[in-house]
Amino acid sequence: MFVRMAALAAVLVASCAPASADSPRPEGVTIEQFLAQCQDKDGWSDPAPPVRLFGNVYDVGTCGIVSLLVVGSEGHVLLDGATSEAAPLIAANIQRLGFKLDEVKWIVVSHEHFDHAGGVAELQKLTGAKLAVREEQRFALESGKIGAGDPQAGALDPLPPAHVDRIMADGEKLTLGNLALTLHATPGHAPGSTSWSWRSCEGSDCRAVVFADSISAVSSDSYRFSDHPEYVAAFRSSLDKIAALDCDILITPHPAASTLYERLAGDAPLVLPGACRNYADFGRERLDARLKSEQNR
To answer: Any bridge partners for residue 131, and if so which?
Structure first.
């Protein structure tokens, strides 16, 4: 599978001349081209072309998983690595935009599951980037195994072990040149669930961008959230935190969770103050519904 993906990645790079080296804002493909290639596709490793979302923020992931490249003056930050099969596709998308792989200096992850962090180890090898994580993400990322405290423990595929270079705490900033990304610990979907916020500009139009982690209360068949009141309390606190974020543009690891493609198509505004609050409200409804359903289990 990896060999086929690597071959496809080479084709993708060759099929599109990259932006010139002096271009400050390569565009990637048009929104229309991006949506056409991903029409009726939402697989976590389905190839997608790179597309600029806003300012210096690009989606270089797959049709079913967002992987963001935030471009800076002294290097770039990659948020999420999708699946291990998708790693060469992400690398190809970065190159397709005209960037060199070694310009990616840091990789961070939303949470420690194979669909978002499975490609991190290979992307570290391809780019030489360092990996910054929360302590709660460390075990899974370094061992490739999901910790016992994860609601989905035993139900998920392992992931290739990666090398952790930095442990970050809630509220800490990852700075690189003119970039400053703030880490927000938002445990719930996974113990290490993490959201990120920063500001991006298109000319004088500057916006608060939030990459909010998944907030779905899903688990293995044997796990009951109601048996873990402290975990549920932390989950609720995370939803409150997400709701309170300064949030003009919401992006989520699974694009459907924030209707990203519909917003790119113009069916709804890309810039939508209050989007994080609405997202958190939906998460509360889902969590309450899950707890209610467990009363009969």
So the answer is: 107
Q: How does pLDDT run across 105-144, given as a tens digit for each residue?
A: 999 999 999 999 999 999 999 999 999 999 999 999 999 9
| Radius of gyration, alpha carbons of the chain | 18
Which residue shows structure tokens 């952790």? 164
Q: Find residue 79's DSSP bridge partners.
A: 68, 108
Are 198 and 69 a contacting pair, CB within 8 Å?
no
Task: Supply the DSSP string of the chain, one letter for each residue.
Answer: -HHHHHHHHHHHHHTSPPPPTT-SS--BS-HHHHHHHTTT---TT-B---EEEETTEEE-SBSSS--EEEEETTEEEEE--B-TTTHHHHHHHHHHTT--GGGEEEEE-S-SSHHHHTTHHHHHHHH--EEEEEHHHHHHHHHSS--TTSTTTTSS---------EEE-TT-EEEETTEEEEEEE--SSSTT-EEEEEEEEETTEEEEEEEPPP------TT--GGG-HHHHHHHHHHHHHHHHS--SEEE-SSGGGGTHHHHHTTSS-SS-TTHHHHHHHHHHHHHHHHHHHGGG-
Give CA–CA dist 229/240, Å, rounded: 17
- List strands edge to edge, sheet with 104-108: 51-54, 57-59, 68-72, 75-79, 104-108, 130-134, 166-168
- 113 with 138: CB under 8 angstroms? no
pTM: 0.91
pLDDT tens, 267-295? 999 999 999 999 999 999 999 999 999 99
